Amino acid sequence: MKTRFAKYALGGMILTGVFLGFAVFLGRGRVSWAEVAERVARVEAVSFRVNEKTQNAPGFRKGLVLESEGRALLLDGCGMKVDRYVGDELTGMMYVDFDKQEIVHLMPNQKQYTVVTLTNALYSETRRKLLDPKEFVSQFLAREYTQLGRSRINGVAVEGVESHEPLLGQRAGRVISRLWVDVKTGWPVQMTMLVKDGEGMEMEKVFGDFQWGLEVDRGAFGVVIPEDYELIVSVNTGDPERGKDMVSGLRLFGEASGGRYPSDLSSDTISNEWAKLIVSSVGIDQRVEIDMAKMMEMVKLGMAGELILRQDRDAAYYGASVTAADADRVLLRWRRDDGSYNVMFGDLRVEQRSAERLAELEGR
Q1: Contact assessment for residue 342 and residue 350, using Cβ atoms and an 8 Å cutoff
Q2: 11 and 121 share a domain?
Q3: CA torsion, points 68, 179, 56, 200, in degrees to nearest 10?
Q4: Is 70 exceeded by the pLDDT of residue 239?
Q5: Which of 111, 115, 85 is nearest to 97 (CA)?
Q6: Could you give the count of Cα atoms lying within 13 Å of 178 in the half-sphere of its Cβ?
Q7: Is the pLDDT of residue 137 over 80?
Q8: Residue bearing the bigger pLDDT, 268 or 28
Q9: C-alpha 334, offset from chain centre
C-alpha cells in the first residue's frame, strides 16, 4: 500500500491529537504514522546511537568493511554532540552549536581540533544532513513509503515502513530506508538507511537505543577544548561570491590529481574522489594518515560549490571535462547581481565577463 504523508497537514494533526488523547492506533490497530511524526516533532531532546558500516569505500581495498559507532545527544534550539568510536576507542567528538551555526570537531588521538562556521544557507543544508533522528522521521514521512507490517526488534513488537527516496542529504545511488515503531507506545525504535552506489560501495546507518523526551541541561552542550589541543584549521564559509573559497581547494585537488578537478562540486563527490587520490598515492594496503588541513580545504570547497550551484545564479561547473591544462576554458561560472558573470577558468583565475562574452567562451 503506497502512502504519502503531507507534512503541511501537521497543524491539523496537532489539533486532532489534542482531542483524541494522542492515540497511536487507528481503529484497526495499525500505527498512525501522522501521529508518530507529530509527537517526534514535539520532542525537544533525544539521545541515541548510530552505527555505521561502509564496504568498498572509495579508494580502499575491495571488500574492506569500515565500522564506527556514534553516541549522540540532540537538544532542539541548542545543539548536538556526537562521540565517535571505532571499537572501544574514542576517535572523535563533534559539537554542533545551533545558535552560532558552528561545528567543532575534536580529535583525541591527534590532540587537534577544527572549527567550521556556516552561512545561513549552508547551515540549513547541514541540518538536513546531520545524524538527526527527528529529521530522519520528518523527511521519511514526507515522502512515499510502503507498509512493512509487524516484526520484533530486541523483543519489542514493532510496525515498519520502507522508503526508497534519499534522506539526510543522500544524493545518489539505490537507497532503502526503514522506520520501525513500537506498536504499544508509538515511539520509533529503529531507523535504518542502506545506500548502494554504482561502483559497489555499500553504506548502512542504523539508529537505535533511543531515549525520547529527555530532560537535558543546555550546559551539557558547551565545548571544552583541552589546553594541549592544537587548532589546525578554522573555516568561515562566508560568502563565496568571488570564488575565493573554491580556488585553494581546486588548486590542491589539481596538484594531487595531475591537473584534474572534481567531476562535480557536490560534497559527496569531492569527498569520494579526494579519498581515492590520497589512497592511490600511498598504496591501497597502506595505513593512510589524514592531513586534516587539506581535508578541511575539501570540506570548504564542497560547501562553497554547493552554495553557488544552489543559488538562482545560472551557475554551471565543467570539472568533468576541463582540466588545469585548459587555461582559457570555462571551469565555473555564475551570474552576478548586475547581470554579468564571474568566470573561473581552467587555470583558476576568476574574471568578470558579460553574458554575451560568456556565451562566446562556452561556444553557445
Answers
A1: yes
A2: yes
A3: -170
A4: no
A5: 115
A6: 19
A7: yes
A8: 268
A9: 24
What pLDDT score does 130 carry? 77
Identify which of 115, 78, 67, 77 has the alpha carbon closest to the alpha carbon of residue 93: 115
The dihedral sign for the CA sequence 212, 216, 220, 221: positive
Classify residue 271 by burial, with Cβ atoms within 10 Å: 0-12, 13-18, 19+. Answer: middle
Using an 8 Å Cβ cutoff, are 302 and 271 in contact?
yes
Q: Confirm if 194 and 202 have CB atoms less than 8 A apart.
A: yes
Query: What's the maximum distance between 2 C-alpha atoms anywhere in the chain?
Result: 68
Residue 140 contacts residue 167 (beta carbons within 8 Å): yes
- Classified as helix, coil or strand, 112 is strand
Give me 56's grid cell: 568498498
Indicate whether 91 and 26 sit together in one domain. yes
The pLDDT of residue 37: 92
Q: Is the pTM of this model over 0.85?
A: no
Q: Tell me which of 188, 219, 250 is where a domain ends.
A: 219
In whole angstroms, how large is the CA radius of gyration of the chain? 23
* Cell numbers given for 345: 577558468
- Asked if the structure places residue 268 within a domain, the reply is yes
Count of positions (residues) in the chain: 364
Each residue's pLDDT tens digit, 17-39: 333 333 333 333 468 899 999 99
In a domain? residue 168: yes
Pairing of strands 79-86, 65-75: antiparallel
Domain that includes residue 254, residue range: 239-361
Which of 219, 249, 270 is the C-terminal boundary of a domain? 219
Per the structure, the count of domains in the chain is 2
pLDDT digits (tens, 9 = 90+) for 57-86: 765 667 778 889 999 999 988 999 999 999
CATH number assigned to the domain comprising residue 193 = 2.50.20.20
To the nearest 10 degrees (0 to 180), the angle between helices 267-282 and 292-310 is 150
